[in-house]
Structures are given as C-alpha cells and as structure tokens.
Amino acid sequence: MSKAYEFLKECGIYFLVTMNGASPAARPFGCIVELENELYFTTSNKKAVYTQLIQNRVIQIVALKAGTRDWIRIDGKAVEVYDLTLKQAVLDVASGLLKHFKTAACAHFALFKVIDQRCSI
C-alpha cells in the first residue's frame, strides 16, 4: 500500500478538485481504491463532476487528517477506465459502492485512474 493511499484511507473523506470551465470545483469524496499501486476513484457519469473530468483531466486531491494538521495534496490527471475486470475489482474492495452501482457493467458507473501523480504529504 502506498503512503498516499494509507493517508487518504485514514482521513476517510477527501476533496476532489476539478475545473468547471475557468473555475475550480471541489467536492467531498469518500471512496478511494488502490490496485497494483494505482489510485482509483468512482463517480456517476450523470454528475457534473464526470463532465468536468472529461473536459479537463487535471485534478487535485486534498485531505486533512481529523484532529491534526497533517494533510495531503495529490496533483494528477484522471483517466476514465472502461475495463469491467478493474471495475469489478473496485466493487470487491469497496463494497459500499454496490448501493450506487449494482454491477461492474452498470451504465452510469464511471471509474477513473489517477495518473502523473505528484504528492505532497
């Protein structure tokens, strides 16, 4: 497990920052999964965040550990992943997602991999 993933899991909630045109848009996310040293997050392709990610792949992930001044910032790019095997692996690890996405083939289940990561802890 990477140090960044361990930190995000300890935080529980992190903020995903995307670009909404020329303005940043931040929203809380709770699910982050690491598979083979790669970070993945999910959303619905019906949400504004999905459209923002498709229009501009540049993202930032920010989290603060509760009760501390310990924080993390990850800069990178989000690339949509269509592989049903990976989607199923994410559902297997984060079973709480099943209330939103019943199967890996769910029409609105969008999976993104974070690439070109630069991390500050």
Q: The CATH topology, please?
A: Pnp Oxidase, Chain A
Shape: globular
State the end-to-end distance.
15 Å
Poorly predicted parts: none
| Percentage of residues in DSSP E strands | 35-45%
Topology pattern, helix = H, strand = E: HEEEEHEEHE
Query: How are the strands of the largest sheet arranged?
Result: 2-1-5-6-7-4-3
Q: Structural class, judged by helices and strands?
A: alpha+beta
What is the CATH superfamily classification? Electron Transport, Fmn-binding Protein, Chain A
At CATH level 2, the architecture is Roll
CATH class: Mainly Beta
Task: Specify the biggest β-sheet.
Answer: 7 strands, antiparallel
On the 0-100 scale, what is the average pLDDT? 96
Any descriptors?
121 residues, alpha+beta, Pnp Oxidase, Chain A, seven-stranded antiparallel sheet, 3 helices
Describe the structure.
The chain is α+β, with helices and mostly antiparallel strands. The chain has one domain: Electron Transport, Fmn-binding Protein, Chain A (Pnp Oxidase, Chain A, Roll). The chain is built from three helices and seven strands. Strands 2-1-5-6-7-4-3 form a seven-stranded antiparallel β-sheet, sandwiched between helices. The longest helix is centred in the last third of the chain and has 10 residues. The protein starts with a helix and ends with a strand.
